[in-house]
Automatic annotation (TrEMBL):
<feature type="domain" description="Glycosyltransferase 2-like">
    <location>
        <begin position="283"/>
        <end position="442"/>
    </location>
</feature>
<dbReference type="InterPro" id="IPR029044">
    <property type="entry name" value="Nucleotide-diphossugar_trans"/>
</dbReference>
<feature type="domain" description="Glycosyltransferase 2-like">
    <location>
        <begin position="542"/>
        <end position="685"/>
    </location>
</feature>
<dbReference type="InterPro" id="IPR001173">
    <property type="entry name" value="Glyco_trans_2-like"/>
</dbReference>
<dbReference type="Pfam" id="PF00535">
    <property type="entry name" value="Glycos_transf_2"/>
</dbReference>
<protein>
    <submittedName>
        <fullName>Glycosyltransferase family 2 protein</fullName>
    </submittedName>
</protein>
């Protein structure tokens, strides 16, 4: 029987209240907490701790008899004259010291940036430092030598969701994780300086001998644990982020968020004083039709409020001879020479009406707006700022939201990804604000009445077809308010069924122009579409499945494909990896005899997911590889066809599927770089049938990565990038592989219509031994070194206004 050990695993100061000292650890359930600063008793509050770090799972569960708690100790403002803080657990049987710390150590930390070193390694002339730091604001990290001179080092900063969950009071901590690798350093001492708002903490790195930080929790526990240095949350990445909602992870209401993110009067005034080197005229074209006067007047006002002055407002009145708004338009044009109006004696449909406005537009760039919507006052300024910073832009679009009829309420924000061609073929996500270069308009032509109702969708397609991807720029700001009323597709989509039929035809025309044979069908909701690609042949698919024992899983996986799949031209390459059960090898023999599609190859090395799949690929005969876990089961009979349809496109390298846990919750619906600090799956554990943020769960779209639990990749692309990286044996290898495909010019597509169960345990992926943690940290360092740009700049397929603390695309709390 183990002796019961109740201990502190983390200690810290509250970031905003330096009198609050917070500890976490295991505590006897029947104990009463007594806290003393020398002989003065302090107020102590205990709360049960719901978030448990993976590091705490390293301990033998038989040793943990108590409950996990958070204790808050109220310290005095002035600690002078005191010597030690002691905390006791007072139980019916005994009174035992739980924690103690000298006051001088408390004073060293209070009010300064807090930090924790997770890796400190000196080897072969290379110094590797990893950890995290946090304060009530972004913390800068600098490195100095023993002479206090700066050391040249590329310090990579990453988001750390575990740290920010621990410090839930942090308002704007910035990126809290850091990693640095310094080569050629010859000194004996190195100083790490963490600074925030003029306050500094210093950590001394002694370089006389290599050192790797061990799990101090265990070390101190073995000694009886009287005083524990700060442990902090574990440096672990998990496939799912905790669903516990703290102050820092609970979603902020959009009504509060937008108040903080629209520019202040001072910021707007600063914009008005700004002079750009490039000052293009932007013509805003508006088709008006019997518009309520108050909305049209407000539209003109919001344009006149723009902080960038070089604009035109071009309004075409398609109301006809008896127009109720003609007098208002004449009045507006008389007030400002930048407002141009054109009238028609007969009623005009929307494309023709918009073209009338385009005919009088003289701008270098054209922006499109509806007659009852509004632009934010910094909309045009933001566009021109982008044009100055990125001179090659020919197409711009921004984020948008919806606005109540009275203009007092904003809701349903649409925070969009950067250019995402497959999402665009699923829904017109670009919509507003949309701005194009005038010469591009001249090149592709005006709006086409054959697509009325979706004329903007058709126009967007023709524009993006005519430019390079890098000439399309997304401004991740709300620049457009879309007013809702009952006849608008913004609020009542069923009211314009003809518009969605026109949208379907616009997508079909797009595919035809770019030479892709496809059928387009209505999606699950009006305005969403589904594409099925037409094949002229059925190429061989090599299904590569690593396996170690678990023959019941393998049987289920293969039986589902054999019995359900409507696509038949496939082979299995089973990669055996160190099975120990004799029944496994007998099964292999029987399988190869009974199933002509199956072949077993033998990998004798240690487990390395990348090497195993690369080994299997050498024996694969197919034009397309399906990397597949043995604990999966296809659901829909056309699963392979859905994956193959996208993968056969020349611009696509890899295709992923929608995966469910056994309890019908989402296991995978795409991957975002940055979730959990490195990468994570989207919409994890959301119930099957939910559609997620802006229906993203059910939208075919491009992502930076998808999971290799089920990923189809063309052989040509696989070989072009050298397969999976074998220096990533367990973690991040599929993410790295997808990023290599992206770097080679391929798209990575998530197809929600390829559905499978993935019977992986929801807790799988926890690094629950010190050896696994060491391996994980090594692989994390490899990934960070290979892909610093996307970790620094953010995932282009994820909007920076959305949080990385949860995987549900909720708003970032800033």
């Amino acid at each position: 029987m183990y002796k019961e050990i109740f201990e502190v695993t983390k200690e810290r100061f509250h970031l905003q209240d330096p009198t609050r000292y917070v500890l976490q650890g295991t505590w006897p359930k029947e104990g009463k907490m007594l806290a003393f600063l020398d002989n003065s008793q302090l107020k102590a509050d205990i709360q049960k701790l719901e978030i448990v770090s993976a590091m705490e799972r390293f301990k033998d569960p038989d040793r943990i008899r108590g409950e996990r708690i958070t204790a808050t100790i109220q310290l005095p403002q002035d600690l002078k004259g005191y010597h030690k803080l002691k905390i006791y657990a007072d139980t019916p049987d005994k009174k035992e010291l739980w924690f103690s710390i000298p006051v001088k150590d408390l004073e060293k930390k209070r009010g300064k940036p807090q930090y924790y070193m997770e890796e400190e390694k000196v080897q072969a002339g290379c110094v590797r430092l990893r950890g995290w730091t946090i304060a009530d604001g972004p913390v800068s990290v600098h490195i100095f030598d023993e002479n206090k001179k700066p050391v040249q080092a590329d310090i990579q900063r990453t988001a750390r969701v575990d740290v920010e969950q621990l410090y839930e009071e942090a308002k704007d901590p910035g990126k809290t994780g850091f990693f640095a690798e310094i080569t050629g350093f010859s000194g004996k001492v190195m100083y790490l300086v963490f600074e925030c708002k003029g306050k500094k903490s210093v950590y001394v790195v002694h370089l006389q001998k290599p050192v790797i930080l061990a799990n101090k929790v265990e070390k101190y526990a073995k000694k009886g644990m009287k005083y524990l240095k700060y442990q902090g949350p574990a440096a672990l990445w998990n496939k799912t982020v905790s669903k516990v909602k703290t102050v820092s992870t609970r979603e902020i209401p959009y009504s509060k968020w937008i108040e903080r993110h629209l520019p202040t009067k001072g910021e707007l005034e600063k914009e008005r004083r700004t002079k750009f080197d490039f000052q293009p005229m932007i013509s805003i074209v508006v088709p008006a039709y019997k518009t309520p006067e108050k909305y049209l007047r407000r539209l003109a006002e919001c344009v006149k409020e723009q902080t960038y002055p070089n604009w035109q407002l071009c309004i075409s009145d398609g109301s006809g001879a008896d127009s109720p708004i003609r007098k208002l338009l004449q009045e507006l044009a008389a007030q400002d020479e930048r407002i141009k109006v054109v009238f028609s004696e007969k009623p005009l449909q929307i494309s023709e009406n918009t073209n009338q406005a385009l005919a009088v537009a003289q701008g270098d760039f054209i922006a499109f707006a509806d007659h009852d919507d509004e632009l934010t006052p910094h909309a045009l300024f933001s566009c021109v700022k982008a044009l100055n910073e990125h001179p090659g832009i020919r197409v711009l679009y921004s984020d948008e939201d919806k606005m109540s009829m009275d203009g007092h309420k904003f809701f349903q924000p649409h925070f969009k990804p950067d250019y995402n061609p497959d999402l665009l073929c699923t829904v017109n996500y670009i919509c507003h604000l949309f701005v194009v270069k005038r010469e591009l308009l001249d090149q592709v032509g005006m709006l086409r009445s054959a697509y009325d109702g979706a004329q903007d969708y058709d126009f967007v397609f023709r524009c993006v077809e005519a430019v390079k991807d890098q000439e399309i720029y997304h401004i991740p700001k709300i620049l457009y308010h879309w007013r809702c009323h009952e006849d608008s597709t913004a609020e009542n989509p069923e009211s314009k069924g003809y518009a969605f039929e026109a949208g379907k035809r616009a997508i079909e025309a797009h595919y035809e122009r770019i030479g892709i044979s496809a059928q387009v069908f209505p999606g699950e909701f009006p305005g969403l579409y589904r594409t099925r690609f037409l094949r002229d042949r059925d190429p061989l698919i090599s299904i590569i499945i690593p396996n170690k024992d678990h023959i019941d899983d393998l049987k289920r996986c293969m039986n589902a494909i054999d019995s359900k799949s409507t696509y038949k031209n496939y082979e299995y390459v089973i990669v055996e990896n160190n099975s120990t059960d004799p029944a496994t090898f007998q099964y292999y023999k029987d399988l190869e005899k009974e199933n002509p599609k199956a072949r077993v190859v033998y990998w004798d090395g240690p487990f390395n997911f990348s090497a195993i799949n690369n080994f299997g690929a050498k024996y694969a005969r197919g034009e397309y590889f399906l990397l597949l876990n043995n604990d999966t089961e296809i659901i829909n009979p056309d699963c392979l066809e859905e994956l193959l349809g996208y993968c056969m496109r020349s611009d696509v390298g890899g295709v992923g599927a929608r995966l469910y846990y056994e309890d019908d919750t989402i296991q995978h619906a795409g991957v975002v770089i940055g979730f959990g600090g490195i990468a994570g799956h989207c919409f994890v554990m959301q119930p099957r049938g939910t559609t997620g943020y802006c229906h993203r769960i059910i939208c075919a779209q491009d992502y930076s990565a998808v999971t290799a639990a089920c990923m189809m990749v063309k052989k040509e692309a696989f070989e072009k990038v050298g397969g999976l990286s074998e220096d990533l044996a367990v973690a991040f290898n599929d993410i790295d592989f997808c990023l290599k495909l992206r770097k080679a010019g391929y798209l990575i597509v998530y197809n929600p219509y390829a559905e499978l169960y993935h019977y992986e345990s929801k807790s799988r992926g926890l690094e629950d031994t010190p050896e696994k943690v060491a391996r994980f940290n090594r692989e994390m360092a490899v990934f960070e070194k290979k892909w610093p740009e996307i970790l620094r700049d953010g995932d282009p397929y994820y909007n920076p206004n959305l949080t990385l603390k949860s995987q549900d695309f909720s708003l970032k709390r800033i």
